[in-house]
Amino acid sequence: MALRTEKPKKLYYSIKEVAQMFDVTESLLRYWETEFPQIKPKTTGNRVRQYTENDINEIRNVYNLVKVRGFKIAAARKMLHHSKKNVDSNTQVMERLIRVRDDLKDLKKQLDYLT
After folding, report:
1. What global pTM score does this model have?
2. What is the block-wise mean pLDDT of the chain (115 residues), using blocks of 10 residues?
3. Distance, CA of 44 to CA of 62 (rounded, Å)
């Protein structure tokens, strides 16, 4: 998964920051807002979106279903609506597996360098 978490935690994140976290476009995030009612960022008077940690967790679930697992939008929406708890745990497992895979790749590179 492309989630990058090197930034310190904040109360609100801009759409640009969230797009960079998931390596997606800002327009895709706006589209997901229309398709998934769970994603509801706060907007200021100037219509600037402010994403909370809860919004980012919802986006993480959508990202996992649509981008990582390849679900269609309708199927992802149905999955989130009917089994939210399972989606959350599956997302956490997928993130952990991807981190382990990346660590193993790094370890293999180091071993290849030594031989």
Report:
1. 0.69
2. 61 92 94 92 90 91 89 90 69 80 89 81
3. 24
